Amino acid sequence: MNKQYLSIFQKYHTRKHARDLEKLQRDLSSRGLLNSGIYDEEIKKLSDNFRDEIEMKKEEYSAEQETERKERNDRIFSRFINTVSTRYQH
User: Fold this and answer.
1) How far apart are CA 4 and CA 76, in angstroms?
2) 3-state SS of 8-58?
3) How far lies 27's CA from each of 10, 17, 18, 41, in Å?
């Protein structure tokens, strides 16, 4: 995953969230529950889920970046050790 993927995910997930909110509003309005406490509770649930999914992707991205950084550093260190050990063997 790269930063561009994260940005694209957030963009389309934001659109999905807006559609979900509109659908919720239509559904509750058709049942006469738009001004009830149910509407506020459902919006909070949708919004919390939206934020959690975005944060999860950000954490996945950060963890992947950290893993890639460690692997890159390990490869560099290995090359260094191999180079040094080869030079001192001769």
Assistant:
1) 26
2) HHHHHHHHHHHHHHHHHHHHHHHCCCCCCHHHHHHHHHHHHHHHHHHHHHH
3) 25, 15, 14, 14
> CA 73, CA 12: separation in Å to the nearest integer?
34
Find, among 68, 63, 65, 61, the residue nearest to 9 by Cα: 61
Whole-model pTM: value is 0.66
Tell me what pLDDT residue 67 has.
93
pLDDT in tens, 5-54: 888 999 999 999 999 999 999 998 998 888 888 888 999 999 999 999 99
C-beta of residue 36 within 8 angstroms of C-beta of residue 61:
no
